[in-house]
C-alpha cells in the first residue's frame, strides 16, 4: 500500500554502505503516520516481520522501558506471593 506525503526517509548503513533493515520515515501529517503504522505493523517484507512504531525521544524510551521493567518485577513478586520457597 502507498502512504502519501512522506517528508523524509533515511535508511541506516554500516561502514561498507550495506543497508540495515532499519528505516526512519517522516510523514507530513500525524494521520498519515498513524495510518502507516496501523497498515504495516506485523506485515512481512523479504521474509522478515516488520516492527512499525512511532519514533520515541530518549526520555520517552527510557520511561517506557522503566515502566515495562517495573511491571515485570511486580508480576514476579505477585507470582511468588505467599509461596513458601
UniProtKB/TrEMBL annotation:
The UniProt entry, under InterPro entries, shows: Nucleotide-bd_a/b_plait_sf, RBD_domain_sf
Entry-linked SUPFAM superfamilies? RNA-binding domain, RBD
Recorded hits in Gene3D superfamilies, A to Z, give: 3.30.70.330
A Gene Ontology molecular function term of the record: nucleic acid binding
This protein is called Putative apoptosis-promoting RNA-binding protein TIA-1/TIAR
- Which species is listed as the source? Parasteatoda tepidariorum (Common house spider)
